[in-house]
Amino acid sequence: MDLTGVGSVADFATGIMDRFWPKQMTEVERAQVQAGLIAALEQRELTRDGLRSEILKAELSQGDEYTKRARPTVIYAGLAFIGLVHVLFPMFTFWSRQTVPALSLPPEFWWAWGGVVSTWMIGRSAERMGAGGAVLKAITGGK
Prior knowledge:
Elements: H1 6-20, H2 27-61, H3 65-68, H4 70-96, H5 107-128, H6 134-140
Helix pairs in contact: 1-2, 4-5, 5-6
């Protein structure tokens, strides 16, 4: 298992070389080009990862408190939709004795809402058990 990612970068570099460079290159030339290609690809990945971390830091350090509370808002809005569709509308239909088309929330709602709820719930549980870290702070919006 390649945990560092160097093996995949080297394989990618070799694949590029096989496709674009002539087959009559000597092994020394090939090794030099491969080493340069690997270094360039690694530098690109380091730059990309650095930019990603800067974006995450900027998002987490921003002053807008609402976006830090957005996960609970999604949870509460989902509960409101569930309450409307599966509790209030059926009760209204029963009491008014009118025929109303059957309503149901789409599967996409359940997948998205369930993913948000489960991620937030696991993060909050871990936070309450004393765990910490940047990932947990990103999940829960904690400081």
